[in-house]
Amino acid sequence: FLVAARKLGNRLRDVAREQLDVVAKMNAMMGELLNVSGALLVKLFGRIFEENKRFQERAAGVRDIGIKRAVTGTLFFASIGLLGSIGLALVYGIGGYLVIGGTLTIGTIVALGAFLGKLYSSLQNLTNAPVDFATSIVSFERVFEVLDLPLDIEEKPNAIVLHNIKGSLEFENVSFSYPKDDIRPLSEVHRFGETQEVKTVLSEEAPIFMSQPELDTGLQRAQIHSQAREIALEYVSFRAEPGQLVALVGPSGAGKTTLTYLIPRLYDPVSGRILIDGMDIKDVTLSSLSSQIGMVTQETYLFHDTVLTNLLYARPGAKSDEIKAAARAANIHDFIMDLPERYETVVGERGYRLSGGEKQRMALARVILKDPRILVLDEATSSLDSESEALIQDALGRVMADRTSIVIAHRLSTILSADLILVMDRGQIVERGTHTELLSSNGMYANLYKTQFNQPKQ
């Protein structure tokens, strides 16, 4: 019994792992294709039939592995029951023969049959234990792995509560590089059933033509100023005084967004310090640090809920007048009042029922409601039409008033009045100064400005 149970337990464990992986692939595909953007892409490229077929294939895989697991377990337990029945049949058969010969009595045979039935029942229950444990160990592997993972950002035991700050922000020789996947704890463990373990969502393997390395002639590297590097930020130093507007400009991939992620401690720098009002942000509590910083990222995220709920996420206890005042300051109140249910209107998944400009103004209203001392704007006017940009620029003027503001912008027209402009390239600050000073230096900023404003008319 126990030998058979051990072999079956190993077999069921392998099947359970395979089942988790198949389900993970199914979930990953559904997450990619059934969200708003994925469904729109499928329709635009006319791939409905192909994706329906792909879904059926993945669903069939989930069905087949489920049947395989059920059949494997059922056959084992049916075999155990059959062995028990055979044993009882032998007892009654041989016992009956002995009763006829006068060796045993009927009562003895009945008693032996009852004892044997209880023995088989106990053995079967004992057999189930290693089988259930073997299948459960697959889930335990993931649970213990998660429990053993260290915290990415740890708060000091005696951290200081940050409150009533003026808003000065200083970077002192800050360097940062993103952690590599191969040094993560337990990275060599295959995480069964996790969608991040799915290498490709639609294709089962990489295309053949991608497996061959391209020949590097050096021509492309000579033509393009690449931002690819291992160190994201290198010895970055600057100071923003309370109420100042500091603008970050430079080519894509220069490290502007990474720099802003270090301010609320989404990551910790490898070296150097970040100070707010002279205090190292590593010495303050994470909650108090977050309460002093407001951030509008490149892609505005809205929950699949009402306008009111999305705004209240910044400050759950805000009053109705405060919410409307924040919406007015962000130039979004009039739009909200024109919606069918006004502030109770559901914005849809990731806010797909709103335009890009409307989502950006919603994000600004949410930040205004939070009322932080330090404001971080990551390309808040990118990819917007002129009317939406004008509304947001008007709102930004009110949002940034009396706040220390760190603004990333590719459109230089939005930061001409900045108190300090930092030009970044390959993770370093290569130029700094006001708009006039940087133009007169005739460096990278001047070239960016000429590219945007002195293009020949068609």
Task: Describe this protein's structure.
With 458 residues, the chain is an alpha/beta fold. The protein contains 14 helices and 10 strands. The strands form 2 sheets. A 6-stranded mixed beta sheet has the order 6-7-8-3-9-10, sandwiched between helices. The protein has a 4-stranded antiparallel beta sheet with strand order 2-1-4-5, with helices on one face. The radius of gyration is 33 Å and the shape is elongated. The termini are far apart.
Secondary structure elements and their pairing?
Blueprint: H1 2-33, H2 36-44, H3 48-100, H4 106-148, E1 169-176, H5 219-223, E2 233-240, E3 245-249, H6 256-262, E4 271-276, E5 279-280, H7 286-291, E6 293-296, H8 307-312, H9 320-329, H10 333-337, H11 356-370, E7 374-378, H12 386-399, E8 404-408, E9 420-425, E10 428-433, H13 435-441, H14 444-453
Helix pairs in contact: 1-3, 1-4, 3-4, 9-11, 11-12
Number of contiguous helices: 14
* The top level CATH class name of the largest domain: Alpha Beta
* Strands side by side in the biggest sheet: 6-7-8-3-9-10
In the CATH hierarchy, the third-tier topology of the largest domain is known as Rossmann fold
| N-C termini distance | 85 Å
> Secondary-structure element order, as H and E?
HHHHEHEEHEEHEHHHHEHEEEHH
Task: Give keywords.
alpha/beta, 14 helices, elongated, 4-stranded antiparallel β-sheet, Rossmann fold, 6-stranded mixed β-sheet, 458 residues, single chain, ABC transporter transmembrane region fold
